[in-house]
Amino acid sequence: MAKTNWQRQDITQHYLEQVRGAIPFGAEQVKMMLNLINHYTPNPMRIIDLGCGNGFLAEVILKAYPNSTALLIDHSKPMVEEARKQMNPFGDRCNVIEADLSQSILNHTSPNSVDCIVSGFAIHHLSHERKQELYHEIYQLLSPGGIFINIEHVKSASEEVVKLYDELFIDHLSAYNDRNREEVAKEYKERPDKEDNILEKVEVQLDWLRKIGFHHVDCYLKWMELAVFGGVK
Predict the structure, then answer these.
(1) Alpha helices, H only, the chain
(2) What CATH code is carried by the domain that includes residue 151?
(3) How many domains does the chain have?
(4) Domain that holds residue 162
(5) What is the DSSP code string of 82-115?
(6) pTM score, two decimals?
(7) pLDDT digit string (tens) for 110-124?
(8) With contact defined as beta carbons under 8 Å apart, do 149 and 61 qualify?
């Protein structure tokens, strides 16, 4: 199993308490996810959440579709523990497992059996080669008409855009947590999990999805380095 900073309890807690809620346009990203599911797969029965964190995306989908069930996957033990606590009210509608996305996901369920696969800020930790392999595996697991939606951190077009993104993101973190901006900026720039980011431009990833065979491939929503993209089998 690949070792990343996300196995650390302190990083997990910091993200859940101070970062996740501060993500710019986070509510709009989730609304777009639900709009896409409702349009392309209006009655999803089987859901997979890849890199589930505390289960936030799966929780939203299970609440929206009371007949659905979900499999949640994350490689971080602290995150898996948080997800099990968060998803406990759903009982047997939900299964949370500890597994690494750097390994094949094909052994977790059968091909052509999943209506909706989502991921939130997780796949960018994989190498570009593994990203492409994972997209192939997602395509295999989806049922015909099933949808893949990735809410993701993507690469900026230039270093100047990176600078602007960082400054704006620090603004959001500072305001959300009501903390001194200089302290937040220092923390942000020195954060240990930054080394786990392997970013790729969204247009490159859209091309990968099209070549695999996905339809209706698009970037449905984007703010700087934060994008909602995917496609339909």
Answers:
(1) 9-14, 26-40, 56-64, 77-87, 128-141, 159-177, 181-189, 202-212
(2) 3.40.50.150
(3) 1
(4) 5-232
(5) HHHHHHGGGGGGEEEEE--TTS-STTSS-TT-EE
(6) 0.90
(7) 999 999 999 999 999
(8) no
